[in-house]
Structure formats: structure tokens, C-alpha cells
Amino acid sequence: MMRDWIELTKPRILQLNLIAAFGGYWLASRWMVNWTELWWVLLGTVFTMASSCVMNNVWDWKLDQRMIRTKDRPLAAGRLNRRLAWIYALVLGVCGEWILFAKVNVLCGWLGLLGMFVYMIVYTMWLKRTSTWSTSIGGISGAMPPIIGYCAYTNEVDAGAVLLFALLFLWQPAHFWSLAIRRVEEYRAAGFPLLPVEKGVRRTKLQMIPYVVLLLPTVIMIYMYGYAGLIFLAVSMAAGLVWAWHTARGTSSANTEKWARTNFLISVNYLMVVFVMMIVDTAGRPF
Questions:
Q1: Does pTM top 0.90 for this prediction?
Q2: 258 exposed, middle or buried (CB, 10 Å; 0-12, 13-18, 19+)?
Q3: Does the pLDDT value for residue 209 go beyond 90?
Q4: Is the separation of the CB atoms in 135 and 194 below 8 Å?
Q5: Opening angle at CA 209, ends 195 and 165, nearest 5
Q6: How far apart are CA 108 and CA 24, in angstroms?
Q7: Which residue, of 31, 81, 135, 144, is most buried by count of CB atoms within 10 Å of its CB?
């Protein structure tokens, strides 16, 4: 039972975005870390994100039953009560926002609310069911964790926050579409008007390319603005070029299933590499 309640929060998504929030804080603090503040921002961020993920499960339970990938989720399979899950989401959200407003700063509280609103209302309840733009616009919520981490230290939205937003915003569509291409018939059966469902797999492959390519100048600007060092630049650019090359190859790939699976794995590792290097090679580090 406890495992099902944890599964509702989508732990893998939480893990990736906690790394992003940590990286955002580290980038802003440049190794001058207030560990208590960092603890509160990570806790507040994970609670607000978990609330949004639980609400996503509550809202999508019928659609989840139509897909092999999601039909065994706790609500879709009927293992948990939907009303209790809704209360669970509400409690997580209230706790997360209280922490961000009271223990971090007001700006982070509003950023958390913005992320929740976009994910729960704009993405889950509206665009996911009506438009191919759901993935792109929904990326706004996924880009909030590193900004919250960054603004926890700076208490302002400056160039660093904008670049972190761009990094996560541009990363998400190609990452998600790699999965959607593999599951296109399941999404079609479930009634989700995703890009590969509505416009086709080839169009989706082509549309992934500019998102991945635009990550390269974003990384360069993080270095040029003095937020991270040369090691960060070299490793992140190498990883970005590998991902861009593989994404571009998708248009001529004979085995779409294999290509999409590999591209998805590259995307996950790309994000991990970039944020780890951002933490390790933050400008102003004491060594």
C-alpha cells in the first residue's frame, strides 16, 4: 500500500527535477551554500511537484487504463481510493507551498504555484486532451525546479534563471517525444492528441531537432555569462552534440523503435551530465 502512495508521486520525475533544483541553487550560490536554506528549497520543491504528479494521476485514471504503460498505476488499477488521492495531492501541495513561502522566499512560492498551475490546469486538464502543444507548453512547469533552486539564493529572476529555464524547457519536448513515438498507438487508443499521433512520427522527429540544437547555445551562454567553467562547457557541449547528432539521424533511421529508445536514454543521461557538471564546475568554486 505504501508503495502505491509513493508511486502516485512519480518518483523518477521527482528525482530528475530534484537534481535540477539542487543544480540551480548551486549555480546561484557558487559554493557559498546555506545548507538549511537548501534543505527547505528541496523539500518545498519536491512536495509541490509530488502534489502535481498525484493530481495528474487522479485526473488521468480512466485514460491510464487504456495504455499498457500506465494501466497498472495505482488509481487506474483500482488499488487506491481517488478521493483519498485527491486529499493526498492537496496536503502535499499546501505543505510544499507553505515551505517555499515561509521558509525560502515569496518569489519561490509564486514560482512553485506557477509550476503547479501549468502542470495541473494548463497541461493535465486542458492541453493534454485537446492540443499537440501540450508537450511544449507543459514544459514550463518542468522548467520551474532549477529556477526555484536558483531564486532561493538570489531572490530575483536574472540571466542565470532565464538560462536555466531555457535549458529545461528545451530539453523536455525531445525527451518526451522519444517516448511518445515508441508508444504512439497506445496514445492514439487512449485519445491523447500528441504530436506523433496527430502529425505523424516523421514530423515529430523533425520537430525534435531544433529543440535539441538550441540547447547548444544555451550551454555556451551559461559559460559566457560566467555561471560555470570550461570543463562544464566542454562536457556539456560534447553531450549535446552527441544528442543532436542522434536526433538528426532519426529522420533516416530504419528502426524507429530502436532509435527512439536510444534517444530517450540519451536525453535522460544528457540532463544528468549537464547538471552534475554544472555543480562540479560552477564558476567561483573554491578549488
A1: yes
A2: exposed
A3: yes
A4: yes
A5: 85
A6: 12
A7: 144
DSSP string computed for 153-222: HHSS--HHHHHHHHHHHHHHHHHHHHHHHHTHHHHHHHT---HHHHT-HHHHHHHHHHHHHHHHHHHHHH
Write down the number of H helices and E strands in the chain: 15, 0
pLDDT in tens, 48-87: 999 999 999 999 998 888 888 888 999 999 999 999 999 9
Q: What is the number of other CB atoms lying within 10 angstroms of the CB of residue 252?
A: 8
Instruction: Tell me if 236 sits within 8 A of 137, measured CB to CB.
Output: no
Q: Which domains does the chain have, with CATH numbers?
A: 2-280 (1.10.357.140)
Residue 242 CB: number of other CB atoms within 10 A?
14
Q: Helix, strand, or coil here: 282?
A: strand
Of 101, 103, 117, 3, nearest to 51 by C-alpha is: 117
